Amino acid sequence: MTTETSDATGAGGPAATPPPSPAPAGPRALAWQRRRGSLLRFWVQYRANRSGLAGLILLVVFAVVALTAPLTVGSDVQDVTDAPGKPLEGPSGDFLFGTDQFGRNLFGLVLWGSRISLLVGLLAAVLSVAIGALVGITAGHFRGLYSTVIMRVTDWFLVMPTLVLAIALATVMSRSLATIVIAIAVTTWPTTARLVRAQTLAVESRSYIERAKALGGGHWHIMGRHVLPNVMPLVLAQTTLGISNAILTEATLAFLGLGDPTNTSWGGLLQDAREAGAVSSGHWWYLVPPGIAIAVVALAFTLCGRAIESVLNPKLRAGR
Predict the structure, then answer these.
(1) pLDDT tens-digit profile of 48-88?
(2) What is the DSSP letter of 19?
(3) Angle, CA 22 vertex, CA 21 and CA 25 arms, to 5°
(4) Model confidence band, residue 233 (pLDDT cutoffs 50, 70, 90)
(5) DSSP-derived secondary structure letter, 7
(6) Closest CA to 281 of 106, 100, 142, 39
(7) pLDDT, tens digit, 9 for 90 and up, residues 215-225
(8) What angle is formed at CA 299 by the lines to CA 312 and CA 284, rounded to 5 degrees?
(9) What are the CA-CA distances from residue 148 to residues 144, 145, 200 (Å)?
(10) Partners of 99 in the beta sheet?
(11) CA 104-108-110 angle, 5° bins
């Protein structure tokens, strides 16, 4: 008995206590873990889409160019009083894209114009999708007279030519970037509203919505905590696709002379080229660079939007 006791306590020392088990993670920590896992799975699936990855790389390049334009070309590139070259010079070693009708460096103007075009496209798309999401969620949640009236208004906007409405708004309001953003957003929200309303109706038909209502969940609780998270993937994909349309619309309005004359954009460069007679005189370098920039950025956003839509939609992902 003595030997066994000494072997258990004296020789081997006091018995080692097992390490304490980790405390269970709280609800907030579990929610963040699920979100990180969802983002990781999203990135893995998105990266497998080659066209979407190519579009993302192009967007990163254009974003870097736009952000660093004040450092690489400077704001004085827009100055018409101290232009470095002769009017309408062709591409050369000094001027990679040639010069415009005032002798300004077109390469620097294209880089600087990316700031305005991307900014207007992003703001207009975000505002348009926000309006459409708000209208779609409320129309899908509140049935009856409100839903009927708001969807008839949406149908009216859908059948009206978007560009004609945007031109009318841009003509009536003052010529500024805010006017262009509002004109594009006000005329492009109905498509998002229709899609979000359909998704809202599908979400509210599920059983957990009935349980939330039975437990006393109010209208804003249902829409904010249950409906909105389920329609956010659709909203994200629609925003990405809407940016390309907004950039094209901004370029069209600027080409028609309805843009902000104090800021350089790609559409504004095309409008300046038209006024200078670049088409009839054969000055192709005045038209091609801003036109290609518009096309490439619109294509990049479209590729990203389609890739996001295919990742978030299981039916599209299965049929790819």
Answers:
(1) 999 999 999 999 999 999 999 988 888 888 888 888 888 88
(2) P
(3) 145
(4) confident
(5) I
(6) 100
(7) 888 888 888 88
(8) 175
(9) 6, 5, 15
(10) 105
(11) 105
Query: Where does 12-93 have alpha helices with state H?
Result: 27-47, 50-72
Which two three-digit tokens encode residue 19?
């390490």
Give 260's strand partners.
none
Residue 233 carries which side chain, given as an amino acid letter?
Answer: P
Residue 30 CB coordination number (10 Å): 11
Task: Indicate the pTM of the whole model.
Answer: 0.80
Query: What does 118-133 look like in DSSP terms, one character per residue?
Result: HHHHHHHHHHHHHHHH
Which amino acid type is present at position 122?
A: L
Q: How far apart are CA 253 and CA 187, in angstroms?
A: 13
Ordered domains of the chain (ranges, CATH):
65-318 (1.10.3720.10)
Distances (CA, A) of 104 to 94, 109, 129, 266: 12, 8, 37, 15
